[in-house]
Amino acid sequence: MTSPGPSIAGPAGSGKLARTANDYLASVRDKSPAKYGFFAAMPDLTNTEAALAEIQYAHDTLGADGIMLMTSPEGSGRQECGSASSSDARCRHESDCKEPTAARSWITHNETTRTAIDLIMSKRCRTYKNVKIILSHAGGTLPYLAKRAASLGEVGLTTKTVEEILDDTGLFYFDLALSSSQQTIQMLLQYTTPDHILYFSDSPYAPRTTIDRLAPELDQAELEPRLNMAFNRGNALKLFPRFGGQ
User: Fold this and answer.
1) 105 — phi, psi (to 5°)?
2) Where are the domains of the chain?
3) What is the value of pTM for the model shown?
4) Class for domain 99-246, per CATH?
5) Which range is the signal sequence, renumbered to this chain (predicted)?
6) CB neighbours of 198 closer than 8 A, spacing ≥ 6?
7) Which residues of the chain have pLDDT under 70?
């Protein structure tokens, strides 16, 4: 479930919607477990007790392959307004900005970048290395800004070293949804290992015409055959080994 996820039902209803969605997804998986898997939807994360209960239910009872998390607790990401006077201005209403909020967030994925940097600076990536986090759309602008983020220690904003910040950037997995160009892949390879890059189409959320235009870029990226195979299938099988026999 994409943004805003079950939180669209409000604090009181998000838990019920998450449970309904997860039970349905499990039923689809059970009809053809060799073909389908699913990431469990989460209720409003500001209700910690409900979120932890749903994670336990999804993992222990339903056997979910992972958890789908939004970039802000209540599921509705913070969006920047395109203001020339202040880069920190916020949109109070959609009409405050000349272009739709969804258009800006869909293209830039700034919230993904902010969340990733928060996980790095809070040392959660390093503390919980057994938790494998896949960032959508090649990590938003994280690969582009990683070296800039690495300078935060040099200006006294974190105790983490440049090397630690860059190393932690490489702990993430990155999917290539609408981000499969050779330029993007080469940038990702500067920060992470080849086994942390995964193909993704962004279907059904992106229009078929967009997917058909961008997905072939992976095959046209002039990658070594071993990398092409790894990105398209091999790396995903390492993350989800139950599909390995198929």
Assistant:
1) -70, -35
2) 1-70, 99-246
3) 0.84
4) alpha beta
5) none
6) 134, 173, 174, 175, 176, 231, 235, 236, 239
7) 73-108, 245-246
